[in-house]
Amino acid sequence: MSTSFSGKALRVLVTGGAKELGRAFSEVLGAQGHRLVITGRDEEALGAAEGELRAKGVDVEAHVADLGDPGATPKLIESLGGVDVLVNNGALGGPVGPTWQVDENEWWRTFEVNLRGTAFAANAAIRTMTSGRIINVVSNAGVHRWPYVTAYSVSKAAVIKLTENLAVELKRRPIAVLSYDPGMVGIGLMGRGCEHESDDPDQQRISRWARSQRDSGRFTPVEQSAGLLARIVSGEFDHRSGGLVTQNDA
Question: Which domains does the chain have, with CATH numbers?
Answer without folding.
Answer: 11-183+221-249 (3.40.50.720), 185-219 (no CATH)
